[in-house]
Amino acid sequence: MTMIILKGIAAAPGITVGPAYKVGKEEYVVPMESIQPADIPLQIQVFEEALIKTRREIIELQKRISVDMGQEEAQIFDAHLLVLEDRMLIEEVISRLKKEQVNVAYIFQEVLKKYISVFSKIEDEYLKERISDVNDVGKRILRNLLGRERKSLKDLQEKVVVVAHDLSPSDTAAMYKRSVCAFVTDIGGKTSHTAIIAKSLEIPAVVGAETVTAKTQSGDILIVDGNTGTVIINPDEETLDSYLQEEQKFKGVSEKFWAVKDMPARTMDGVSVEISGNIEFPDEVPSVKLHGGQGIGLYRTEFFYMNRKDLPTEEEHFQAYKFVAEQMNPHPVVIRTLDLGGDKFLSQFDIPKDMQPFLGWRAIRFCLARPDIFKLQLRAILRASVFGKLKLMYPMISGVEELRQANAILGDCREELNREGIAFDKDIEVGVMIEVPSAAITADLLAKESDFFSIGTNDLIQYALAVDRTNEKVAYLYEPAHPAVLRMIGNIIEAAHANEIRVGMCGEMASDPIFALILLGMGLDEFSMPSLAIPQMKYLIRSVSAADARNTAREALSLSTAKEVELFVRDRINDILK
Ligand code: PEP
Ligand code: MG
């Protein structure tokens, strides 16, 4: 077997070796075969057996999911069971079988195609949603008709490297850490939410590897180097050895960082910053604490809405936030309100697909238009605020007007709770994410009406440089060190400090060691990142002086290109981390 080396985008750190497991689009093309009239009863029996087997599989899956993830997630499959009981579908297959006298698998495939095409034409978002149920069950039935097996990730005995053209954030979130040791995709960018979730799952990932699905077969041995974005298919022995050594070295270096993880993030000349964790799910809290996080700087709540068919209730929101607040108490937890849209779609809402989802009906825009949904979350955050130190923050604010509108809705929630006699922290801090260029430029105005800022560089960079953060084709233009980005960040920090509010950063740039000195030197107060990155950042901050960082930032801001900036800091940082 020849060794193939592919270069993708490093999405989550770590090096691992494992067998490939391709998660592809499951496609079957069944050829038409004539049958004898005498075979018809047998074909009907084959069809009925496939339906029974499919039903058994779905019930089994439902049981497992209800144990692993909860009752509500399991209910998703109720719709699949209903498709199996659809008399019209079953009768159409049998009557066509009798009339056309061809193999039942072929007939079923044709009926399925017809169903899907009819559903697709209906202008009803709910019915359109059903297409994926019909499709899913249809493929299961077809697979059983053909007597094929599909291994579930859950059934795997050894850990695999998942190889896919693309994985949605919810696919990634539903991955079982027990059976996945890395993943590689053809498309995607470094700050796509799929990549971000891989970091929280703490598994190495490479995205944007373009031809990886075409060049890999399930079972091939893959080296995934999530530090450099390299994927090696079927490595020779020498390469494998050197990577295994590299893997050991990576672990060794981590030990050095590990030793300082619970120490203060204080520079050699006594300037303290806060290093906190980003989470998507409440059960990531122990990992933030374990890695030495001094709080949660970003709790992305939208994942709460994913992988389910209904909306979370106020009580569910409340229980989750209360749990996180109590677990982290007395450390702060910043809950970001719903940031739906962009690359995070929620199936519950009838949202037509935007042409440019990142510029579309997203985040705070959606919440302001749907105060009914927004208020449930705001009330729950306020109610949970008495159980620890909660702060709340709005995503995608583009100017003062939107901030005031959001605060007006928050004000209504406060009044309601007062009337109902429900306690909440009256001084809860309300912050703004600065991730839209218009907000960065008017940071002085926003700072007057905010308690804190958090810079969302993942979006700020894509909007400032007009580079889609999920598109690997333009990933080379996605430059955090671009002078435009650095100037914006400098402007935001200055405006915040002039108005005596603190400013953090919760985009992926905050966790990249290359930019640590510059950000520290510009005066950033808080760095929030995936928990895995915390020990290294603590080590770095503790190894430098703030005075030195200020000089570095000044120098970096005078350079003309991102490359020059990176070149200027890279060696220094590598020396410190070595
Ligand atoms: C960001 O945009 O930097 C951010 C932290 O938010 P998200 O990645 O969830 O869009
Ligand atoms: Mg964002």
Structure notes:
The chain has 578 residues and is of the alpha/beta class. It folds into 3 domains: 4-26 and 151-238, Glucose Oxidase, domain 1, CATH 3.50.30.10; 37-146, PtsI, HPr-binding domain (Enzyme I, Chain A, domain 2), CATH 1.10.274; 257-576, TIM Barrel (Alpha-Beta Barrel), CATH 3.20.20.60. It contains 23 helices and 16 strands. The strands form 2 sheets. An 8-stranded mixed beta sheet has the order 1-8-7-3-4-5-6-2. It has an 8-stranded parallel barrel with strand order 9-10-11-12-13-14-15-16, surrounded by 5 helices. The model has no long low-confidence stretch (mean pLDDT 88). Magnesium ion binds at residues 395, 435, 456, 458-459.
In short:
This protein is an alpha/beta fold and 578 residues long. It has helices spanning 40-68, 71-75, 78-84, 87-100, 104-121, 125-145, 169-173, 193-201, 212-215, 237-258, 285-290, 314-328, 363-369, 371-384, 400-420, 437-441, 443-447, 457-465, 483-498, 513-522, 534-542, 546-557, 562-577, and strands at residues 4-7, 9-12, 15-22, 160-164, 180-185, 205-207, 221-225, 230-233, 274-279, 296-300, 332-336, 389-394, 429-434, 452-455, 502-505, 526-530. Strand 7 (221-225) and strand 8 (230-233) form a beta hairpin.
Helix/strand class: alpha/beta
- CATH fold node name of the largest domain: TIM Barrel
Count the domains: 3
Give the CATH superfamily of the largest domain: Phosphoenolpyruvate-binding domains
Approximate helicity band: 40-55%
The CATH architecture classification of the largest domain is Alpha-Beta Barrel
Radius of gyration: 26 Å
Q: What is the highest CATH level, the class of the largest domain?
A: Alpha Beta
Q: In what range is the share of β-strand residues?
A: 5-15%
